[in-house]
C-alpha cells in the first residue's frame, strides 16, 4: 500500500515507519517536527531508507493535499501528547489534535482517500473500570486534592465511599476524559467516525495504553512515566514514583504497537464502508508504576526507586486495558513481554538525551 504516516518522525511513528517499510509498503511521512519534540529538527530524526519525508503541518490544507497525492490509506499519529504543563497548553493541544485531524479528514474526503488508522489513547476512559461490592460497576469522579494530599489515592465508591475493586476497561466503557489532551484524543475519534459516515470511509482507532521502548522522548512535561524514570536512571538519580506507586497500568512495547498498526491497515479493506471501530491496544498484562520503576532500576543497576507521595492533578489511578477485541478480530498478538521489554528499554537510547530538563508540574 501507499501510506501517509502523519507524525512519522515521532516516537511511535518512527517505529511504525520501520515496520511498514519492512513489510514492503510505500510510506510517506508528514511531520511538523514540533520544536518541543524535536529540538534538533531533522538532524535528530531517524527514518528508514526509502521513506518519503514531507516537513509540514497537518493543519495546513495545501501541505496535506500534496502529501495525500497517490495515497491509499492514512495512519494518523501526529498529535501533541502528554499532560502538558498547565492550561496555557490547551489551545495548542486542541489546534494540533482536533483542528489537525479535521483538516486531514477534509482533505482525505476531497481526495478520495477512504482508509484511516488513528492513534487513539486509553486516556479517553478517565479512570478505568471499578466495581463496588454493593453498587456493582461504578464510575468514580475525579480524585479530590484534599484526598490526594492526605495520601488517599484510591478513588472510593461514588455512592457509599467504600473501597473499590479495579478491573479491566473494555472498549464499551463510557468515555470520561479528565484533561485537555484526553478530550482532544476523544474528539479525534468522533471526527474520524463522522468522516467515515459522511464519505463512506473506513476508520479503525487503536487506543494505545502506556507505550514504551527505544526512541522514547526523555523527561519533559509531555513525556510518559517510563521515559521519566529511564532518564532519571541515566542521570544516576533514583526514579521518583508518585502517589504510592500502586497505579495500575498496561505497558505495551512500541514494536507491538507498530505491529498493531500494520494489522489495522491490512484490515481496513475488509471493513464496511462508513464504519468506525475502536480497539484497546495493550499487552494484556497489568503492572503498577512502582513495579515498572523497580524493573527498570534493577536492570539498569540502580539507584532504587523512591516513592514520593507527589501527584499530578488529572492523572488517573488505574487504567489497565482489556485488549481481547484486537486479538480476536485482527489477530494481533503482543510479542514483547514486560520483563524483556523493560530490560531492553533500560539500555535503549532516549530521544534528546543530552538536553536540559524542564520542570514537571506536580503537587506536594
Ligand atoms: N506514547 C504513548 O504512550 C501514547 C499513548 C497513547 C496514545 N499515543 C498517541 O500516539 C501518537 C504518537 O505519539 P508519540 O508518543 O509518538 O508522540 P511524539 O511526540 O513522539 O510524536 C508525535 C509526532 O507528531 C508530530 N506532530 C505533532 N503535531 C503535528 C502537526 N500539527 N502536524 C504534523 N506533525 C505533528 C510531532 O512533531 C511528532 O513527531 C499520538 O497521536 C499520541 O496521542 C501515544
From TrEMBL:
InterPro entries found in the cross-reference section? Epimerase_deHydtase, NAD(P)-bd_dom_sf
SUPFAM superfamilies xref list: NAD(P)-binding Rossmann-fold domains
- Per the UniProt record, one Pfam family is Epimerase
NAD-dependent epimerase/dehydratase domain: from which residue to which, for each copy?
3-130, 170-273
Family that this chain belongs to: Belongs to the NAD(P)-dependent epimerase/dehydratase family.
Official protein name in the record: NAD-dependent epimerase/dehydratase family protein
Organism for this UniProt entry: Kitasatospora nipponensis
Amino acid at each position: 500500500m501507499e501510506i501517509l504516516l502523519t507524525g512519522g518522525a515521532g516516537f511511535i511513528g518512527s517505529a511504525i515507519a520501520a515496520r511498514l517499510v519492512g513489510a514492503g509498503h510505500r510510506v510517506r511521512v508528514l511531520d511538523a517536527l514540533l520544536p518541543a519534540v524535536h529540538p534538533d529538527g531533522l538532524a535528530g530524526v531517524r527514518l528508514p531508507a526509502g521513506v518519503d519525508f514531507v516537513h509540514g503541518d497537518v493543519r495546513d490544507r495545501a501541505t496535506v493535499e500534496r502529501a495525500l497525492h497517490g495515497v491509499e490509506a492514512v495512519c494518523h499519529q501526529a498529535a501533541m501528547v502528554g499532560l502538558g504543563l498547565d492550561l496555557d497548553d490547551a489551545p495548542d493541544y486542541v489546534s494540533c489534535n482536533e483542528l489537525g485531524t479535521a483538516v486531514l479528514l477534509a482533505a482525505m474526503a476531497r481526495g478520495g482517500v477512504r482508509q484511516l488508522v488513528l492513534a487513539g489513547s486509553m486516556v479517553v476512559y478517565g479512570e478505568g473500570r471499578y466495581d463496588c461490592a454493593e453498587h456493582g460497576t461504578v464510575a468514580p469522579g475525579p480524585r479530590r486534592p484534599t484526598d490526594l494530599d492526605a495520601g488517599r489515592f484510591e478513588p472510593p465508591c461514588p455512592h457509599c465511599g467504600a473501597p473499590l475493586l479495579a478491573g479491566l476497561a473494555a472498549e464499551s466503557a463510557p468515555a470520561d476524559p479528565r484533561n485537555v489532551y484526553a478530550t482532544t484524543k476523544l474528539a479525534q475519534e468522533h471526527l474520524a467516525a463522522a468522516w467515515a459516515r459522511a464519505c463512506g470511509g473506513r476508520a479503525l482507532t487503536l487506543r494505545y495504553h502506556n507505550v514504551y521502548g527505544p526512541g522514547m522522548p526523555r523527561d519533559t512535561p509531555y513525556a510518559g512515566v517510563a521515559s521519566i524514570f529511564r532518564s532519571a536512571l541515566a542521570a544516576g538519580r533514583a526514579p521518583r514514583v508518585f502517589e504510592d506507586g500502586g497505579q495500575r497500568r498496561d505497558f505495551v512495547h512500541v514494536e507491538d504497537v507498530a505491529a498493531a498498526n500494520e494489522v489495522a491497515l491490512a484490515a481496513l479493506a475488509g471493513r464496511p464502508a462508513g464504519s468506525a471501530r475502536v480497539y484497546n491496544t495493550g499487552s494484556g498484562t497489568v503492572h503498577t508504576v512502582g513495579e515498572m520503576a523497580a524493573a527498570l532500576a534493577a536492570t539498569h543497576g540502580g539507584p532504587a526507586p523512591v516513592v514520593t507521595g507527589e501527584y499530578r492533578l488529572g492523572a488517573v489511578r488505574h487504567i489497565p486495558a482489556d485488549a481481547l477485541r484486537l486479538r480476536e478480530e485482527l489477530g494481533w498478538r503482543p510479542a514483547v513481554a514486560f520483563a524483556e521489554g523493560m530490560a531492553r528499554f533500560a539500555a535503549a537510547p532516549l530521544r534528546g538525551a543530552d538536553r536540559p530538563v524542564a520542570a514537571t508540574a506536580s503537587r506536594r
